[in-house]
Specification:
Blueprint (H helix, E strand, L loop, with lengths): L17 H5 L3 E3 H7 L3 H7 L7 E4 L2 E3 L7 H12 L4 E2 L1 H8 L11 E6 L10 E6 L15 H10 L4 H13 L5 H10 L6 H11 L5 H11 L7 E2 L2 E4 L4 E3 L3 E3 L4 E5 L9 H4 L1 H10 L3 E5 L1 H6 L1 H17 L5 E4 L4
Parallel strand pairs: 5-6, 11-12
Antiparallel strand pairs: 1-3, 2-3, 4-5, 7-10, 8-9, 8-13, 10-11
């Protein structure tokens, strides 16, 4: 048994029993003191090379290995105090998003506006009048619309925001109106990227590559296409969902890559989708996502050329139904 120094009048527990008594390996010094451990004992064990380590002022990991992201999350919640809610990238990761960037840096937590807790190296503490009720589960997580917008407000990476918003919408975890409502209810600071991405998603864009394609076609002088509409033949039978559809001439534009779609199975269906469109007289333009930013002029020229070719052909007998209908 490891001997520890106790506070006066208290019987200190065995060190090996401390994690079970505290309910985990990330604890506050106050919790250890309540168990009977002396503050000097805690400080000694947290020295360099010691068996414990300090994660933040007043917060200890009962181990000396590198802190995991979960360790940092527990430390951030303990630092922020009762009622704190995880948001941003950590909440998105714990919700199960696949396309969100890996969490890094301080853990973003929300606390009641009256809380005077300042941030620490392990936590980014944001006071809010709109503290959300946490989702039920192991962690107190902000709902997905709030977590998405809290991440988007602090991100300068438009493609990362595009990927996150496209994923939650395409997987049916929240709707564009829900995201817009959350955006309008919160602070307007830092919302330019989020507003631009939501405009793209509202137009039907569902991937990073499609967002880049949308930006390019807006500069081309062509009439804006429909994004991800449903095509039906003259008998009302389903044909395909092209990435973009120029309805006035019956031209389909496909952005072909496994990398930029939410499910690899999408790519396996590409050949069948294209064959179905061509069988109905649809001219199909194919573009690699990498060409959108490495060869934008060539892509635009090809798109304009194919648009002109489609205009000279009889328009195919297909009907386009916008993505949100």
């Amino acid at each position: 048994m490891v001997e520890v120094r106790s506070r006066r009048g208290r019987q200190a527990p065995r060190i090996e029993d401390v994690p079970a008594l505290c309910g985990g390996y990330v604890v506050t010094v106050a919790m250890l003191e309540k168990l009977g451990l002396h503050r000097r004992t805690v400080s000694r064990r947290c020295r360099p090379g010691g068996p414990w380590s300090s994660l933040a002022p007043g917060i200890v990991k009962l181990g000396n290995g590198p802190p995991t992201r979960d360790d940092r999350r527990y430390a951030a919640l303990l630092h922020a105090g009762p009622g704190a809610v995880l948001t941003g990238l950590d909440a998105l990761a714990l919700h199960g998003l696949r396309n969100a960037p890996a969490p890094f840096g301080p853990v973003h937590v929300l606390v009641p506006h009256g809380c005077r807790r300042a941030g620490a190296g392990v936590a980014l503490v944001e006071r809010t009048h709109r503290l959300p009720d946490p989702e039920p589960g192991r962690w107190p997580l902000a709902p997905i619309p709030r977590a998405v917008l809290d991440f988007a407000r602090r991100s300068r990476d438009r493609n990362a925001v595009r990927a996150v918003v496209a994923e939650v919408v395409q997987r049916g975890w929240c709707t564009v109106p829900e995201l817009v409502e959350e955006l309008e209810r919160g602070s307007s600071r830092g919302t330019a990227v989020a507003r631009g991405v939501l405009r793209e998603i509202s137009d039907g864009v569902r991937s990073v590559a499609e967002a880049e394609a949308r930006a390019l076609v807006l500069r081309s002088g062509l009439v804006a296409p429909l994004w991800n509409p449903r095509l039906d033949d003259s008998a009302g039978r389903f044909v395909a969902y092209p990435d973009a559809w120029f309805d006035e001439v019956g031209l389909a534009w496909e952005i072909d890559s496994v990398e930029y779609h939410l499910s690899p199975a999408d790519y396996a269906r590409t050949v069948r989708r294209r064959s179905a469109m061509m069988a109905n007289g649809v001219l199909v333009v194919q573009t690699l996502p990498s060409d959108l930013h490495s060869r934008p002029r060539e892509v635009m020229a090809e798109l304009i050329r194919c648009h002109g070719q489609a205009a000279r052909l009889p328009r195919p007998s297909v009907t386009a139904i916008p993505a949100d209908e």
